[in-house]
Design brief:
The structure is a single chain. This protein has 299 residues and is mostly beta strands. The protein is built from one helix and 16 strands. It has a 16-stranded antiparallel sheet that branches. A hairpin with a 2-residue loop joins strand 13 and strand 14. It is globular and about 55 Å long. It starts with a strand and ends in an 8-residue tail after the last helix.
């Protein structure tokens, strides 16, 4: 995905384009409901988008207080859909183009010192609603709300933070990308209703400030203990583990590059995996607080 924003005027304008493969799942019932099987299907998607954001800075003290509201329009072109035609639309294979709209709002209040990874104290809320308002052959909607609470840890620069969220999909012919990341350690499974909560304890390991010929700057290394709890349609997904991170900066780019590894243990769904434990590699940009919970921005 490529994206660009222009904040030289008010409001903030941004544009992005995505092209790639997507997948989802659906459950089928067998033997009069005695057995269920989760089946996956895939497609390719082209998604150019344009958005307008109105940011408001309400800071009056050491707490940084911000509110943003915005709207984004996209054109989505679906190809290669291998989802079988439904009994009430036997002539369609669910490929084609349509125009969804996204409305979003966010609130943040918190403060941090220079050496802090996360806010010492803070709160944030994100709300988004996506739908297909124009008449056509494709219909779908998504509502998502999530929030984070930050607290001081036991020692300086440690961070205890809790996150929670709710997501509701209204699928008909199209399923929007989930806004929330699935419980860590589990493969994503689509659900019309998903609840998730997680607890994290983040702490620094050491701050080397290594500078490699003014190209790569190794700023710090830190770790995160986590526990995830997610629920979808009476199924539970619980996990716990440890994440190790390194924060890098390339050249003079301010946004940090995050590299790391995650080890986890799954408490549920053991019959679906070879082992109850596992490891993942982590790659991303920006903050660990948002990246551990949110899967997509308002694309």
């Amino acid at each position: 995905m490529l994206s660009v924003s222009y904040a030289g005027l008010y409001p903030v304008l941004d544009a992005s384009v995505f092209y790639g493969g997507r997948s989802s799942t659906y459950d089928i019932s067998m033997y009069y409901g005695l057995m269920e099987e989760t089946v996956s299907y895939r497609w390719r998607e082209l998604r150019p988008s344009l958005g307008i954001t109105l940011p408001f800075n309400l800071t009056r003290s050491r707490f940084d207080t911000k509110i943003s509201v915005g709207v984004r329009g996209s054109y989505i072109r679906v190809t290669g859909m291998n989802f079988p035609a439904r009994y009430y639309t036997p002539e369609r294979n669910h490929n084609g183009g349509f125009i969804p709209l996204t409305y979003y709002a966010s609130f943040y209040n918190g403060y941090r010192w220079f050496a802090d990874i996360n806010p010492v104290w803070g709160q944030s809320v994100d709300i988004a609603y996506r739908h297909t308002p124009f008449r056509g052959n494709t219909d779908g909607a998504l509502f998502s709300i999530s929030g984070t609470l930050w607290f001081p840890g036991i020692l300086r620069h440690h961070s205890l933070f809790f996150q929670g969220g709710f997501e509701r999909q209204y699928p008909h012919d199209y399923r929007f990308p989930a806004r929330m990341r699935f419980a860590r350690g589990y493969t994503y499974e689509f659900s019309e209703t998903t609840w998730k909560a997680c607890a994290n304890y983040l702490f620094p390991l050491f701050n080397p400030d290594w500078n490699l010929v003014h190209v790569i700057h190794f700023k710090r290394f830190y770790a995160n203990l986590f526990g995830d709890y997610a629920m979808r349609e009476k199924a539970y997904y619980r996990s716990a583990g440890l994440e190790l991170y390194s924060e890098l900066r390339l050249f003079t780019i301010e946004t940090p590059l995050i590299l790391g590894v995650r080890g986890y243990y799954r408490f549920d769904r053991h019959h679906e995996y070879r082992h109850p434990y596992g490891f993942d590699f982590i790659f991303g940009f920006g903050s660990i607080s948002a990246g551990s919970f949110q899967a997509q921005q308002y694309l």
